[in-house]
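Supplementary Data S3. Sequence and structure tokens for construct A.
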Amino acid sequence: MNIIREDDLINSIAEAFQYISYYHPPDFIRAMAAAWEVEENPGAKAAMAQILVNSRMCALGRRPICQDTGTANVAIEIGAEARIDSTRPLQDIVDDAVRKAYKLDTNPLRASVVRDPFDSRKNSGDNTPAMLTVDMVAGDKIKVHVSAKGGGSENKSRFTVLNPSASVADWVVSEVEKMGAGWCPPGILGIGIGGGADKAMKMAKMSLNDDIDLPEIRRRGPQNRTEELRIEIADRVNALGIGAQGLGGITTVLDVKIHSYPTHAASLPVGLIPNCAATRHTHFVLDGSGPATFTPPDLSDWPEILLDQASAHAKKLDLDDLNQDVLDSLKPGDTLLVSGTLYTGRDAAHKRMTDMLNRGEELPVDLKGKAIYYVGPVDAVGDEVIGPAGPTTSTRMDKFTDQILAQTGLKVMIGKAERGAVGLEAIAKHKAAYLIAVGGAAYLVSKAIKEAAPIAFQDLGMEAIYKLRVEDMPVTVAVDTQGNSIHKTGPAAWRREYVKA
């Protein structure tokens, strides 16, 4: 019987979370690079270029790929002949590992977990508890799968129970079409088919830890119904034209993973979970000989990309001179380099600001004629001005938008993905503009931030309002002052008919 020391398990899990915070899986980088090479839409190609450059920067600088360093997902397979040398609950052991990883002073990871999901929503401060699943399997070793799952993609999870005669592909394609871009494509779809509701969702989540192998399956040809289904779903989703960041393009998914399990004769449960452009996972095995070791990937897997070429046609926008003529000149799809004053503010800050406005109180920041960035950054280290600071999903701010625009005079919002009908209506009504930064390029974006200081609501932690000074921050016009959205026109232009091979 192999005996695994508690400290070896803790140290291995902690090191794994640090490792995946700054290293994309090499297979993901190769797949993204291949998609970048063939992408035909310049806007989508530029977005993928930012993702790849950001990934390489993070690998070199050992800083988080995305500001949303995710919930800590840990799946442990314990061999029947293995034993952990501990008397503590496994959840406590794993939480100690997560706490150690997320609080590391040389690379702190953002704590996003709130302890009470429906009341106070107070942040745990260390990203615990972990989302732990445990299976007993044959063997004398312990296998651990570790992944960090961001909220943007997790929020797009879907589940259904189809009739046994229904088409899984039809349902998946329909759901992806409705998801929008909040899950930050291009990415991977994880699908669980069979079992029950819990089993299907668990299989969907676990499938996202599989290596990307769809290109190889295409080369040799599918050998079973599962592989045929994976290809069909991938081809049909890509034919939707959603593209990178929802801008329109030929690649929306890099792979489709499917796990299946026996189920009730009257049921066809299906779970669907997407993984974003900040896909982060690894696995290791402990046999009692010591903690796991992690080998850095080969930097030759990253393509050499000159972002200067991608932004050669970008327009300059002065955030300190947002007059109406300037705003009216912006068109969906325009690439911009913005400079000047930029305030941060996301869910909690918007809720507090609207509550203050409803009470007739003066806000602690003057947003008239200014721009706000929907972001919750990672803490800075060393001589950094700010940690990785990529955008969060903007639709969550839609319900606040009309009141904020009307009562503060705010003119520009920067976030990621599409705006909903309520947000679009408010933007057009107040002749404002909505810009997007690339989700999955948080470290790259942070380099454009030259000054950062919290100025309000500091008790909200990463959701406090900061005053930033940015220089040449890369963004794309998503919604113009008339309410026209690139997330509608882009995919429509790149949508194509699916033709089964």
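Construct B, processed identically:
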Amino acid sequence: MDHKILQTTRELIDEVGYLALTVDQVAARAGVGKAAIYRRYASKAEMAFVATVHEQQLPPPVRTGSLHGDLLALVRAFHVRMATPAARQLAPALISEIAVNPELDTRFQDTFLAAEQAAFADIVDQAVARGELAGPVDPAMAHLLLLGSLASALYVLNLPVDDAMVSDLATAAAAGISALADRHHSDPGGAAGKPVDRGAD
């Protein structure tokens, strides 16, 4: 049933666009009840996000043996889905809905962003274990450096992001993460390795 709901959502976004999409349309074409959809997804925005951009569980990480290689593999995998026409339609609408819907914001933070940051934590831990990084780096900051930059390029600046740019983003993120690790290692009391305080003005 999950596959049918998501496949139908993708088809309808291609046909009518995200703004005209309704849960009723998805339920009717998929042959399921609306209640079955809402048991899985809190809103149309979440359902469409899962269908087009980001499933709730990420695939196992690619182990390349280097920080840059791991970051490049990760950002390439995200770029494939984030750069689709459907994702470009959905992202601004999702951001707008999250801004006014605290429940969706919390769900988004606790599922999708938590999974992404866990992937970055794993990449950083592996790099520290290999001796590539002088010490740990806040995964939220690593996430911001790479996927935050990709999302900005795609959804805010509307740049034609190709694989060369994706590779440059990975290179820049690896350099930034290394610099933060060096700074934190040389100044253990500094802010570089501490979690990002999202409550500060």
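The chain has two domains: 1-40, 53-186. The mean pLDDT is 86.
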